[in-house]
Amino acid sequence: MAAPPAYALIATDLDGTLLRGDDTVSDRSLAALDRVARAGARHLVVTGRPAPRVRPLLAALGCTGLAVCGQGAQVYDAGTGRLLWSVRLDRELAETALGKIEAEVGQVFAAVDQDGVDGLTLIEPGYLMPHPTLPAVRVDRRDDLWREPISKVLLRHHALSDDELAATARAAVGSLATVTMSGPGTVELQPCGVTKATGLALAADRLGIAAEQALAFGDMPNDIPMFDWAGRGVAMANAHPELKAVADEVTTSNEDDGVAVVLEGLFPAG
């Protein structure tokens, strides 16, 4: 009888982790994920990208099951194309939070991810998308950002670093929203209490998998709650220092197949 897999659930962030800089997944990483599947373990994408921006990547990965999207605000079923769970960010609270932040740092530039499997990413004048490959619709004024329900707000500042903006935003908004930093130029406001860990816990419960059976990979501070929840957390070599500080292990970079390096040791070929 074959030995059970070392971990029953492999949770991977996308940008800066499983994905290379060109938004592709290497053949080596795909082969490692195939080993995971053949061993009977599950692979779960856990990403800040909203469900509509994840669907093509899930198709390329051959994922037909669950995915955690929108920083944990969405649990998406790729097989049926439905959101099984989603949390919206109250638009009035979002406006109030933006006002509090701007009272501290001056003008910020904002974008929103609309809720739903077909939600758009809307960007106000002056906002530059950190991922130019991701589709976005430019609106004429900030009020247009709030015309449909949203899952989160994305923020940029002309002078502050991401760390500075995130720290100031946390102090300014308090319990109005959860503030995360998920990548270069990506500081976000999401529903209070919602993190990657909340979405991952819900998805894992549906799969009947306990936290200690999960191995998580990530690269940014928004992955810290996921590492806290999972049995083991692996940071990429290119990860933010805050994540490396809480990781159980540091692997090679996303460009050097860091996810595959670890999985090949845990799930031998055969």
Describe this structure in words.
With about 270 residues, the chain is of the alpha/beta class. The chain folds into 2 domains: about 10-85 and about 195-265, HAD superfamily/HAD-like (Rossmann fold, 3-Layer(aba) Sandwich); about 90-190, Hypothetical Protein, Haloacid Dehalogenase-like Hydrolase, Chain: A, domain 2 (2-Layer Sandwich). Helix content is about 35%, strand content about 25%. Strands 5-4-3-2-1-12-13-14 form an 8-stranded mixed β-sheet, sandwiched between helices. The chain has a 6-stranded mixed β-sheet with strand order 8-7-6-9-11-10, with helices on one face. The longest helix is centred in the middle third of the chain and has 15 residues, at about 90-105. It is globular. The protein starts with 8 loop residues before the first strand and ends with a helix.
Which helices and strands occur, and which strands form pairs?
Elements: E1 9-12, H1 14-18, H2 27-38, E2 42-46, H3 51-61, E3 66-69, E4 74-77, E5 82-86, H4 91-105, E6 109-114, E7 121-123, E8 137-138, E9 150-156, H5 162-173, E10 178-183, E11 186-190, H6 196-207, E12 214-218, H7 224-229, E13 232-235, H8 241-246, E14 249-250, H9 258-266
Parallel strand pairs: 1-2, 1-12, 2-3, 7-8, 12-13, 13-14
Antiparallel strand pairs: 3-4, 4-5, 6-7, 6-9, 9-11, 10-11
Helix pairs in contact: 2-9, 4-5
